[in-house]
Design goal:
The protein has about 250 residues and is α/β, with parallel strands linked by helices. It has a single domain, classed as TIM Barrel. It contains nine helices and eight strands. The strands form two sheets. The chain has a five-stranded parallel β-sheet. A three-stranded parallel β-sheet has the order 1-2-3. The mean pLDDT is about 95.
Amino acid sequence: MITDSHAHIYFDSFDTDRDAVLARAREAGVTRMLLVGTNVRTSEQCFELARGAPGVFPTAGIHPHDAAEADDAARARIAELCRRDECVAVGETGLDWFKNFSPRAEQLANFRWHLELALELDKPVIVHCREAHEDVLELLREHRGVRGVMHCYTYGPEELVPYLELGLYISYSGVVTFPKNEANRAAALATPLERLLVETDCPFLAPQSRRGARNEPAYCREVLAQLARVRGIELEELARITSDNATRLFALPT
């Protein structure tokens, strides 16, 4: 059993073959996936797609790119979705100082609101961090006790330490397969096995063998294979470990 801890198959690029995408995922051994919302509309889509789909679990949140849209009505709707029993995490949220699609002040306020909601609900938070390492750390330290995952971790082992000290899980994506990304592979080796997760972040960040193509949950197996090589353990064993970690963090049924 492989668990893709971060997927966005509600994107319109999946509209023509979504059922086939789910079938290919199962054939590849990816039997569970988290559908991660990025605003009100996509969060609602996560719940719709997860309804009646075995092994598919929804989250709700407002991505830093959409932080400018995080008004009271949007936050109320996200909070309502997050309170549902079937919602396994708060987010995706965080900070993105690379694209800056929303003003920094609004990103900071949006991230802080999600962290407070995660603490209130005692649910894990899914954290996006792009070129915002120090500021993400500052807010996480302000909200000690929050559980969660650094999604699509792209940094090296030096930046890893404070996230581990805060008790966070670390999720690796297709980025870890890129030939010149030795620093990310070193971080993957340094991550304690009990904190390790895998993801696709599809439709983005396809692994090296499919780079430039649309990513999909089936390709999570390639990420897992790379991590197994880095760690020097069998793929099946790492699949079990990372799925057990996902079960523990997100309170998933086995």
